[in-house]
Records
---
Amino acid sequence: MHFVSTKSNLQVSIEEAIFGGTAPDGGLYVPSLIPEIDLDDFKTMDNYQEFSIQFLSPFFVNSIIKDNLENIVNESLNFDVIQSDIDTGKQSLSMLELFHGPTAAFKDFGARFLSSTMKAINQESGNHKMNTILVATSGDTGGAVASAFHNQPGFDVVVLFPKGRVSPRQQHQLTCWGDNVTSIAVEGEFDDCQHLVKAAFNEDQMIDQNLCSANSINIGRLLPQATYYAWSSMQYFKKHSKETNYIIPTGNLGNAFACFIAKKMGFPIGKIVFSTNSNKTIIDFIESSVWEPRNTIPTLASAMDVGNPSNMERFFHSYDSQSLAQSLEAYSVNDQQIKEQIKKEYGNHQIICCPHTATAFSVYRDFPDDTKDNNHWSLVSTAHPAKFENIVEPIIDEVIKVPNSLSRLLKLDSSFISIEPRLEKLMDIIL
Ligand SMILES: *Cc1c(COP(=O)(O)O)cnc(C)c1O
């Protein structure tokens, strides 16, 4: 198993792909081949960690940390993944709850796995240099990465977030760490943050900082995300011998690409549908087959406010653009619809969903009946609604119970630095 750049024939080991983040030629790393699995090997596994070790092993076969994988999974993927059934009469619907980690969004899977693998790689390779994790966030990644790397020896963390574009509780999670974590509010949008991170990686002056990326462009984040699709599809398949179809709230396309990996490996996954907010780059591409990044529009589902989804590069590497446009399915849900959906799910089903998850519910409820009746659907629930209480509580007129992990963080003091979106400003801070 090697990892190849989407831009050339460059091949690297998984350690290099994880520590490099992006390839030196500007491409993103993808596995050189997608391992094919025998479903029977996974049928007997009910334990998520055991399942994950088996799932991830082929990607690490010739890695210096292959013997550490069990440890890595047990220490990083040590929180619940819940596939809960939603009672809808004759329709078969469930919600894949990915928000039971320390920062209450699915970003915990990737961030914690990345932190553990990087620590293991440093140990096994005898690297004692300091590394700087540089990460741009539209809200949830930064908190998850800061939490995962906080006080991890050998690592500094610099988190960039768009000022005023994240929820108050998200901002608290980004700025409450101190110690080895520096939080920076950028006067701009997520795309500006992402742009600054990319530019910093290309700066020769940054060589000594040993910069590492923890964005969803890092393949080390996508692999543990592929695991929960494999696992949840198997849970359903074991009982019903049928595939699961997913609706995935989508921004930078990392979570969606992870689902494609699991499907390609042979797990019983049917359709993969993206729900987006009013940022329509993907929708427009499906209509025109032309990829045209847009400026970002701020929406209520702010973690999906991405006008230029980076992981599209990985899709283009795997498919030609015409057939890709034909095979993808995506629907846009605007702010008004998000609000209505949150209200309806609460009123009709007592489900409280975050604004991102609401886009998946909206897409599902709008499907024609036969799509809903004859297929099993899993709506991917990407964050806990208590992270977005400023949006959700006024709509449902109810106070949302805060999960323990989140309430612990909210009690900590917070601090951050504000900068204009200019590389010199960022470099001043890092250097
Ligand atoms: C990051 C995020 C998304 C979008 O995921 P991508 O991998 O960027 O497509 C959706 N919902 C929430 C809550 C998120 O934090």
---
Amino acid sequence: MEKGKSKSVFAQAQSTIPGGVNSPVRAFRAVGGEPIFMESASGAYMTDLDGNQYIDLINSWGPMILGHGNTLISDAVKEAVTKSLSFGTPTYAEVEMAELICSMVPSIEKVRMVNSGTEATMSAIRVARGYTKRDKIIKFEGCYHGHGDSFLIAAGSGAATMGEPDSPGVTRGTAQDTLTVAYNDMEALKATVAENKDEVAAIILEPVAGNMGCVTPVDGYLQAMRQLCDEEGIVLIFDEVMTGFRLAPGGAQELYGVTPDMTTLGKIIGGGMPVGAYGGKTEIMDMVSPKGPVYQAGTLSGNPVAMAAGLQMLRFLNENRSLYQQLESTQQKIVAGFKSNMDKLGLNYSINAVGSMFSIFFTDQSVKDFETAKSSDLEVFGKYFNAMLERGVYLAPSQYETLFLSTAIGEAEIEKIVTSNYEALKEIHS
Ligand SMILES: *Cc1c(COP(=O)(O)O)cnc(C)c1O
């Protein structure tokens, strides 16, 4: 595979962009090798600067659930562009968007549009703090909620439950208000809540985690968390930036039948444009400015072109619900193929999957939290990633990212993915 153009553009990028990329995981540092620069994409395939084609299994980290170049969405964008790229005034599309979101997502009675998942989670915890008049939040090890200061916190060491900055530039003051607990461990969560009685404003989690690879909640976990929050007056926030509109029209909360107090959205909600949103119970959302005292604003929030793309995407998903079964069946065929490949090769790796999200971990432990996710052999993952890339299958360039399917992946692509998996596994174990 010739990659000369990507290589030279990456070299050029180093002098004006930190690390040559605008988001770190794109740089391939976790897998070795150099990033591929894309030129165009259509359906299930991306084409790079050198003309190589790849089956896309990241789909822009989720948004492209219908594959690339869907004309319903691009036509809506073209039409919106003719009216104006931005007004900075309210527009009717924002009202339609709010109504559609409220009708699709069980927990959302009112919603505010923002421009990214990061903005959504930052704003949601501010509102939860304003509403409860408490300062602390609890998050889970291995969950990702964007790059807001309050979330870039590592678990404190020893007996201290206080968090520690996980990035230079995050202050100790901020860190002390974020408590971190292991995912899928209800006892640890209860203990942390008890130690911080009447101080916890919100518990925030990915109801299905996708940022330590795909990790699903154990039976009863989300229900128990719901009950705990009710008893303790804590705002339960589901960060559905990834799972929203992906696992079901109403996200993971619909799939698992657990209704949080607040929900954060992103990725699919913009149909490929930069959009995020946070919403929840009326009583909580009415805390937001100008209705309430909690300040939050955005010059380009509810941007008309972004709304046009997102509206088309959500309408399509809402009206074509059978596509969720199609996505699940695609996932099941791929996972079954991988398992049969491993049987043939005498390998026993761990696969987690739900709906159109799945991950292979290079460990024989079952992966249920960040600790077990870390048991995956990252060196083997790096080899596997590059072996798949060489065969024209583009995986997430990190073990700790889930893969995302799109409806554009058909039988031919499934076969190619499964065959490539066999060859790649065989190669790295020869
Ligand atoms: C991607 C992601 C975010 C951050 O969204 P950005 O749009 O990248 O800021 C937050 N939470 C979860 C669960 C995500 O997957």
